[in-house]
Amino acid sequence: MDTNTSKKAVQNEPIVTHIYTADPSAHVFEGKLYIYPSHDIDHDGPTNDNGDQYAMEDYHVLSMDSADAEVIDHGEALHVKDVPWASQQMWAPDAAYKNDTYYLFFPARDKDGIFRIGAATSASPSGPFNAEENYMEGSFSIDPAVYVDEDGQSYMYFGGLWGGQLEKWQSGTYKPEAEGPAANEPALGPQVAQLSDDMLSFQTAPMEILIVDENGDAIQAGDEERRYFEGPWMHKYNGKYYLSYSTGTTHKLVYAVGDHPEGPFVFKGTILTPVLGWTTHHSIVEFQDKWYLFYHDASLSGGVDHKRSVKFTELHYNEDGTIQLIAPYNK
Fold first, then answer.
1. Is residue 238 part of a domain?
2. Which sequence ranges form a coiled-coil region, renumbered to this chain (predicted)?
3. Residue 116's beta-bridge partner residues?
């Protein structure tokens, strides 16, 4: 059942306040704006670099008819108990539309505690979604983001350090004691794989994306202002591919630009300055002739790291295609 929150959307304010939401993936489906966030819950568990504080169990789908319309909560779209292979921690999801079907992609820990990526389908953008029996073969880590290019080919971007386990997969298999590269070595990039026509499997093996500076040199692991940490997102503007992501420890959203969806990408700058709360995770979408950045912070909960709220703000480009810096707390 749909639940109308009776709350109109206001830029840089929580779009819903009856639940805590984070990691918003925004898409335009059927002429409306649909947001696919994770659903933060309160608990008494530990807070650590492993991400145990993020104990999310289900997903709600939100929608908006316009940027200043009331936000609709369409209720529970998928719960971990309905995912046969998953054990816990339904983290940041994404959605896509192809084959007259809506797809929800999501990470969760399998029965061995290893993060994998699953898929679920629905006839409606608001769900509910029915999960596939098994996770996507060859998938690992977190933060799936799916981009359907103009030629119909779909790509999945994914990966996150620390709790997201990305550094544990450098050898191609999961090694729980593996550490990331040294500070003076190239940083780990996000992974990308082409998806099959039915969107339910990898058509190509995941490969690491290269992010370089203006001189063509790989961004180093010690460059925490620019290096990849988690939360990839892909969008296209004026024929260029924009890979945006979180820097993690320096709490920024940044971006790099390339000529192909698989890279390489040249680092360009910062999109969003740090927000209240440890994580930062986003999406970028064009809706009704304007561009918007969806993000989250912990302002509604007074800074509680695992009780976050989705917000959004208009995003602007300069004439050269660079993105104007957004400082969300400036009035």
1. yes
2. none
3. 108
CA-to-CA separations, 71 to 39, 92, 283, 301, in angstroms, rounded: 16, 20, 17, 20
Catalytic residue ranges: 44, 208
170 belongs to a structural domain: yes
% residues pLDDT > 90 (the chain)? 92
CB burial readout 36-63, b (16+ within 10 A) else e:
bbbbbeeeeeeeeeebebbbbbbbbbbb
Range of the domain at 131: 13-315
Please tell me the distance from the alpha carbon of residue 92 to that of residue 107, in angstroms, as a whole number: 7
User: How far, in Å, CA of 75 to CA of 80, rounded?
Assistant: 15
Residue 209 token pair: 């994306």
Domain for residue 69, yes or no? yes
pLDDT in tens, 102-156: 999 999 999 999 999 999 999 999 999 999 999 999 999 999 999 999 999 999 9
Residue with tokens 């029996």: 133
Q: Are 271 and 326 in contact (CB under 8 A)?
A: yes
Would you mind telling me the total number of residues written for the chain in this entry? 331
The count of structural domains within the chain is 1
